[in-house]
Design goal:
This protein is α/β, with parallel strands linked by helices. The protein is 38% helix and 24% strand. The chain has 14 helices and 13 strands. The strands form three sheets. Strands 6-7-8-3-9-10 form a six-stranded mixed sheet, sandwiched between helices. Strands 2-1-4-5 form a four-stranded antiparallel sheet, with helices on one face.
């Protein structure tokens, strides 16, 4: 899907990316993670030529990105950033419709796509389509930004610190929303963050960068359990590795039969143990029902069992 082949980038003689070799497969959610100055945003922006690489190659579906017209390339890639960048005097619907309209889609098709995306992002079209950005919360604006990035059904979604400016509650909500969208659409997503917990929650694979080079590539669990160096172990965090591993264990592995009355509150079987514990704490309960995608109750999980398994 996306291939970095000995890719390099320098600014004024200073190397930002050095000999980057990486294959991002169709349908992955790859997180570029690292400290400030590690080159993660540069790597992302080279994919859609917001930044031009000056050594090696970058391929999209086997074709060098310099072989594409730059506007055509960017229209094949949705792009969502921290500042959102919505047009303030355009409605939500018109903001989302920007790229499909530029591509010459029929108005009925554009309207249908806007409606589809607002529903996907849990924003009722009748309520939100005609609003303006200043009438939305920060989280709602970010959802519209994601919808706009997805509007033309791009091959790839690039996201540069998309939730960084949001409060923790809204950020957590949108992280879960992105996980759901990824499962629902199967899009290839490349996301930049410096937030380790965000990377562990979202990624199918993490690319940890340090000073423009790859320190380690692997699944979240591989980085937690098999750090390739002291830098990786320290960056991921030695002290709370056990807690972070809760982010990776599905709650479905701890489901038991319902005892007595069905729990009042439920969680999806795709949730993690950490999400279940967090939800219990927020609701002040010690038991949650677990439901499948159709809403059928599969059983329940208890806080005591989840916490005992963590220490086991």
């Amino acid at each position: 899907m996306i291939t970095f082949d000995h890719t390099c980038k320098s600014y004024g003689g200073t190397s930002a990316i050095t000999d980057l070799n990486l294959l991002i497969a169709q349908g992955e959610l790859v997180v570029l993670l690292g400290p400030s100055g590690s080159g993660k945003s540069t790597a992302l922006k080279m994919i859609n030529r917001m930044v031009d690489h000056d050594g090696g190659r970058i391929l999209l579906n086997g074709e060098e990105i310099y072989s594409f017209n730059v506007q055509d390339l960017r229209r094949r890639m949705g792009y969502a950033i921290q500042s959102v960048g919505l047009f303030p005097h355009w409605t939500v619907a018109r903001n989302i419709a920007t790229v499909p309209t530029l591509l010459g889609w029929e108005p009925a098709r554009v309207q249908a796509r806007v409606t589809e995306l607002l529903q996907l992002l849990d924003m009722a079209p009748a309520q939100y389509a005609s609003r303006y950005p200043h009438q939305l919360s920060g989280g709602q604006q970010q959802r519209v930004g994601v919808a706009r990035a997805l509007a033309a059904d791009p091959d790839v979604l690039l996201m540069d610190e998309p939730f960084g400016a949001l409060d923790p509650v809204t950020r957590a909500s949108l992280q879960l929303e992105l996980k759901r969208i990824h499962r629902a659409t199967g899009k290839t997503i490349v996301l930049v963050t410096h937030d380790i917990d965000e990377a562990l929650l979202l990624a199918t694979r993490i690319v940890l960068l340090n000073q423009g080079r790859i320190a380690q590539v692997g699944t979240p669990l591989e980085l937690l359990q098999q750090p390739a160096s002291d830098f990786v172990a320290d960056f991921i965090g030695r002290a709370d590795v056990g807690l972070k591993q809760l982010s990776l264990r599905p709650v479905a592995t701890s489901v038991q039969a319902v005892q007595g009355a069905a729990p009042t509150h439920v969680i999806a079987d795709t949730a993690t143990v950490r999400e279940a514990i967090s939800q219990m704490a927020a609701l002040g309960v010690s038991v949650l029902g677990v439901c499948d995608a159709e809403g059928s109750l599969l059983g329940q999980v208890r806080a005591a069992d989840l916490l005992e398994a963590r220490h086991g």
